[in-house]
Structure formats: C-alpha cells, structure tokens
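Long-time lurker. I teach an intro course on protein structure, and each term I like to show students one example going from raw sequence to a predicted 3D structure in token notation. This year I'd like something fresh instead of my usual example. Would anyone be willing to generate the tokens for the chain below so I can use it in lecture? Attribution to the forum is fine with me.
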Amino acid sequence: MAEYQAQEIEAKWQKVWEEQGAFHAEADASRPKYYVLEMLPYPSGTLHMGHMRNYTIGDAVARYKRMRGFNVLHPIGWDSFGLPAENAAIKHGTPPREWTNANIAQMKLVCRRFGFSYDWRREISTCEPEYYHWNQWFFLRMLERGLAYRKRSKVNWCPQCQTVLANEQVVDGCCWRHETTIVEAKEIEQWFLKITAYSDALLDDMAELRGNWPDRVLTMQQNWIGKSRGTRVRFAVQKVEGAGIDVFTTRVDTIYGASAVILAPDHPLLPQLFAGVPGQAALEAQWNRLRGRVLRAAELATAEKEGIFTGRFAVNPFSGAAVPIWVANFVLAEYGTGAVMCVPAHDQRDFEFAKKYNLAVKLVIRPRDGSALSAEHMKQPYTEYGRLVDSGAYSNLLSDAAIEKMNADARAKGFGEAQTTYRLKDWGISRQRYWGTPIPVVYCDGCGVVPVPDDQLPVKLPEGVALTGQGQSPLAGVPEFVNTTCPKCSGRGRRETDTMDTFVDSSWYFYRYTDAHNNKAPFAKSAAAYWFPIDQYIGGIEHAILHLIYSRFFCKVMHDLALVEHREPVKRLFSQGMVHKDGAVMSKSKGNVVGAMDMAEKYGCDTARMYTLFAAPPEKDLEWSENGIEGCSRFLNKVYRLIARHAERLRSAPAVETVDPGGATEKEKALLRKAHQTLKRVTHDFDMRWHFNSSVALVMELANELQAQEPLEADARPGVVKSLLEMMTLMLAPVVPHLSEELWEMLGHTGGVGRVEWPAYREELAREEQHEVVIQINGRLRGRILVEDGLADSEVAERALADPHIAPLVQGKRIAKTIVVPRKLVNLVLAQAAGGGGKAK
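-- Reply from a regular --
Happy to contribute to a lecture. Here you go:
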C-alpha cells in the first residue's frame, strides 16, 4: 500500500492553489463577508513554531469560514520599519532595506510552505514608499486638525536604542525591547499625536467590544487611559510669594486628614522651594539622588518609598493648617499634577510613607455604621467612604455629600474645582533613528513649521545613509535630504530629520489590505465599507496597550475624516497562548526554538499545523513536545492508509446522503451515529468556542473507531463507508488542508476540498445519550457527573473540573496528571505539596 508522502502532497496542492487563485478575495454582495487577520508580523528572519501557532489558528478559521459559504479576506504583510533592522545594519554593515527584504523573503517562503491561505496579491510592506506615503498623509491631516503638534518636553529615553519611547513602551521602568535597560528622562523637542482628544471615546466605545474582546485586554486599556473624577485643589506655599501647589485628589473628603503635600522629584516648583532654606546644598544633593531613579507606574506598589522634607510648608485651603512639603519617589510628574496630598489614615501608600517618616496619622472618616476607629491603633488605613469627623463644617456629612459640597465651596472661594483627569498622555512619535517614515514638515526661518504639500508626498527615505545609533537621526547628516525649499515662500528650508514611531505603520495597515495598490488614497472608502470591521483579529496579549489602543485611535481619526463609517476597527479579538519549550517561552534569545521549516521537512507542514492546534486550547500556553508531534504524524499516516485502502473501490460509489434506519445494518447505524456526533461537536467547536484541540481529538476518536471496525466493507455498504470517510476528510480540511485535498481526490472528487460546503450533521443521528462518569481526586471518590456520548477525553476532564463540587477541591492546586477512562471515570492527580502528602484534603 502507498505511504503518505507529505512533502510531495503539500507541494502538489500548493501549486494547484496558486494556479486556481484559490484564496483571492473580491467584494461580493451575494455572500456574507468574513475578514480574518493575524497581527502584522515583523520580518525578523526564520520563523519558528512559536510564531506559527498564531498563523495556523488564523488559517484554520479562514478555511472553515470559506467552507461555510463566507467570502473570506485573509491577507498578510510585513511591519518592516524598525530598530532591529537599523541595529543589524550598524552591527553587520548591511543596509536596513537589504536586511529587511532578505528576512521578508525567508518568512514568505515559510508561510507559503505551510500553505497558509493568504491572498498574496494584497501583500504590503510598510517600509515601501507606496505604503509610508499614507503614513505621511495621515500625519498631515492630523496636523491640520491640531492632532499633531510639536513641543519641548521630558521624554522617555532608552540609552541602548538611543531614541525616545512612548509611555506605553516603558515596561517596569525599562525599555520594552531591552527589559534590563533602565529608561532615562530627557528633555527634547519632539512631535506628538493628540490621542488624549479621544480619551472618552476610547473608553465609551469599549461597550461595543465587550463580550467579543478578552476582558483583560479591555481592563488593561481602561486602566491605561485611567479616567479619574476628583478635585483639583491649590495649596499656597508659606514664605514663597505667589507660589502654589496644585493637587488632584479623588478623595477631597479626606483633606482635613492631610499630613503633608508630596511632590514628584521632577516637579518644576522644587528649585524655588529649595532656594534659601537651611541646609540647601545637602537637600539638593538628596533631591538629585531621588531624581536619578524615579519609579515607574508598574513599580509603585512594591518599591520602597523614599522621601525628603523640603524645609517648606503649604497651607491646607480648607482647614488653614500648615502642612510640610515633601519630595518622594512614588509621586510621578507625568500623572495628575505631579503632586499629591498625603492622608495616612485613609490611603495605603500614604500610611506606609507616614509610618516610615513619622508623619501624623489623623482619622477624618469613620464607617457609616458608626463603629469606632482609633488612629493610634491603626494597623492599616481605612479607605472606604463613610462619615466625616474632625472636618470643620463638613463633619457628620457622608462622603458623597461632603465631596459635592467641598467641590462647590472650593470653586466659590477660588482655590479649586471638580475635575476629571486621565492617566493617558499624548503619543510621542518622534524617533531619532533612520529606518522609519520621514515626518513630512519643513522648517523655515520666515514661515516656521510648514507641512509638505500632498502633491510632494511621499517624502522618501534616502538610501546609503551612514548609520551611527548615537542619539541623533542619521538623516541630519544627509545635506541633500535636509536642505530643501520652503513649500510656502520658496525660501531655504530644512526637513525634519526625526522619523515616526513604527507603531504608526501598524495602526492602520489592515485598511490598506482592502485596497493595497491604490496610489490616490490610503484606501477606497467603498473597499473599507465592504470588508470592515475585522471579524476576527488574532494576536498576543502583549499588544493590548501598544498596538491595539493606537489602532483604535487611528480608526476614530479616520471616522472624523469621513474615511470610514464605523468607530471600532476590530469586532472580535482573540489572544493566543505562547509556545514554550524547556520551561521557557520559545525565542531565539532563549536558544530553545524549533524551526518551522525543520518541522515541515521532517514531518510535513500538515503535521506541524495539527500539533499546534491539538497540543493545547488556543488561548492557553503550549509546551512543545517532540513526542506530541510524532503522535500527530502517526495519526495522519493512519488516516492516509485507511482511506487509501478503500479509495479504489469507493471512487465511483455515490455517498449515502440518507440512511433508512430500518434498512441499515447495526454497524452502519453505530458508525454513522459516531460520525454525526463527531461532526456536531466539531462544528460547535469551530463556530462557538475554538476548542481546536477537542476537535482534533474527536476526529482522532472517529478514525480509531473506523479502524477498529475494519474491514469496513463487512456489513457496511460502499456508499455508507464513503460517506464516513468523506465526513472525516472534510472535518480535517481546516487543520490539515494538503492531506485533505489529496484524500478528497482519492475518493473521486475534483475541484478541491476548500470549495466544498461544510457538511451538515443529522440531528437524529447526532443526538447524544448521557452516561455517568465517576470523579476521583488522587484515587478517592469525590463526585459523579453526567456527560454526553461523543465527548473527547479532554472535554470530559473539563466538565469534571467545572463541576461545582470539584472546583473548590482543586482550586489553587496543580494537577500533575488527568486520567480518563472513557465512559467510566476521571481521576485528577494533584501534585504532591513540598514536605507533605499527596492526598487531597
């Protein structure tokens, strides 16, 4: 019998798909559209199996939706500007474009080798003038509307990248690309996009996304935008004429308990406060030490709090009491006003600071129920709303009423008012590097900042530029680029030499796919109207802030430019789990990668595709196992041999569409029931919950059942056997498309399996009976559940873990092994605790 020759079969069908234009997508009003997309890949070189999981998930969905009758758009392109190419150029002497395009060619080869069903006609590369022309066009439209502006400000500077980082690109105080490189504060002139103009829209429109986006992504974005309603209050500074400190607080009802005002180390008033105080030199030395290591937002909860007393006092505008002014590392200049009031009795951070530096702890809020609290004996602050005490005219008021009255009084007396603030800051897009989109403005001594006219776009990035990575854009050293004519007065002008943050490129790229070769506009409005919103977007959780919030911002700008009618670009978002090997995330830096081409050459790409979908649910992390992929290889070989054994005699036999239960043999009834139950479950998995691992497991069980009933021709008519094998082939088609095409042809069909409608299960055959399964924990009986026939072992285990009697027993414990005896029991083996027994209590 012929053996499964994966590489030959895959090459054959990829050629057929290319010749057929099988994955070309055009607008078609007669069919429902479906836009499925994986996040834009950066061309870093050879792809490994950690990368391939994302693309395999997207491709399985795209192929399934085509079989369900949808007009599917599934494109790909390359996020091809960026620092890695420039750094490689500096290190190896290879021009960034050459390095980038070589990587693109390699990655494209791998994607084609894996048979991903992309419409390659729509391929884009963001480093090409045809694309970044429209980055510049969008910038100019924002400049016209005041959404792009230039100012001198303190920025996040990465000493390793030698460039500015946006706030979103600082992670735990370090560069997002270099997790051990501490980001420094630096003051320079740079360009910003006014994303803050859309703060409320970004928050309010989340209502449209709930239920279709992961909750944790929306929570991360909501926290990043950080909308707070509170009060802005001005504390006058004693003995410094005209000086005042603005404080923003969400709990003005606690202001009578303020023990201090605390400033960020970068607060602009500090030089004035230190001037003339006793011990000024020593204080300034301590201050400079604090400024040298400012905490970032992510560190505030855990870092040790440090502060110094400035020697000055401020006046509480409500009570008139003098309070000391301190400087502390946990107050951030970029958030709020860069100053806070310290209320130790009612804030955990302030409580810790006060205990360390012996500040007064004054209780001014008591519980509503009247229960007593004592400031002297407090072990932790009371942070709830309650009833005010020792708060002058506001005593005995409940917090809500007190806040409302205090806001009104502050406004009437001129020292404060109710205010809404946001954590979100404008997006700094200036980068002092070469390999990015040139910013399309000219500086003229007479005219100032002059936008480049649309008919002079794109401002092209010059080639052959000497790269240094020394903190100034290399473009500044290219006279033929810098020196130009002012578009307004025709006098001498200088081009901007900073380039754009590469997240600009990826904030709108998915619109370009709808009209990839348009040279008159970023895309035609009609093309976007047909394909958008994206029905399914797939990518890692690490992009929750950086990419996804920027792309939502761009969509809202496009809406205001009347380019699109919708306000959100992505209808549904899925964040896949990571691929691990040897206990760490698969990555080149860890040295634990499994090459995608290596797997394709060793096992065939269908086997590699199947393993990435079968080894774990797609939202969970996957631990790479060579035994696991070998198991998938054995299964596909078994399926091939099973169908090859029957193909010759079945090729001309018509498949049975209906079976008369009265005339069917017992074997036919049993096999058809198993097949239709499997089809029902697999269809549900693809439609509703994306449990591809369960789908593969179910098809494996069906194949095992068919093999166990060999010879199939005994007591089963050819039409029934053919119907069974066809159903199994079609269920495998989204996962292992090349082999499925070959099997479909072996069974006598032409035209390609991808053009065949997804089969429909028959309810009377798919009806599942329930049976009782015993649940054990470490071998001891803990419960029983009813489950339907046809569930995969993994699904039975999921049901056991979800049972309300079992879930509390395993919560917080590690399950070392799950043993499933089909139709009988599930035994959950809990990992043995260190120094203790392994039995569940």
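Some talking points for your students: Confidence is low (pLDDT under 50) at residues 834-841. The first strand starts at residue 33 and ends at 38.
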